[in-house]
Amino acid sequence: MAKVSLSPAALDDLKAIFEFISNDSEFYAEKVINNILQRITVLETHTRIGKVVPEFRNDSIREIREASYRIIYRIESEVEISVARVYHGARLLKEL
């Protein structure tokens, strides 16, 4: 089982997502964040479940999706995964 951690940038992304959605509905904002976090837990047992991020073309930088969000993660080793960013699919991915 891999240890999954969230980078400071990923935590900031989640906070921004929550704040944006909570302008309309705090209930829905909590639901979206919980769904994203639940999806991330899959990486503990399935480190290569995601596809390679086309912007980087690096086998160790992959993504999974939850609703409209791209969860970008880096395989540090077979037992260590780092979630780098959580982006809305409509936004351009510029950096990790």
Describe it:
- With 96 residues, the protein is α+β, with helices and mostly antiparallel strands.
- The protein has a single domain (3-88), classed as YaeB-like fold (2-Layer Sandwich).
- Helices cover 31% and strands 31% of the residues.
- Strands 1-5-4-3-2 form a five-stranded mixed β-sheet.
- A hairpin with a 2-residue loop joins strand 3 and strand 4.
- Helix 1 runs antiparallel to helix 2 (26-40).
- The model has no long low-confidence stretch (mean pLDDT 94).
Order of helices and strands: EHHEEEE
Strand ordering within the main sheet? 1-5-4-3-2
Task: Say how many strands there are.
Answer: 5
Number of helices: 2
- Any idea what the radius of gyration is? 13 Å
Q: State the end-to-end CA separation.
A: 24 Å
Largest sheet: 5 strands, mixed
CATH superfamily: RelE-like
Q: Helical amount among residues, as a percent range?
A: 25-40%
Mean pLDDT: 94
* Uncertain spans: none
Class, according to the CATH hierarchy? Alpha Beta
Please indicate the percent range of residues in DSSP E strands (runs of 2 or more).
Answer: 25-35%
CATH topology title = YaeB-like fold
CATH architecture label: 2-Layer Sandwich
Give the overall shape, derived from the CA principal axes.
globular
- Give the helix/strand class: alpha+beta
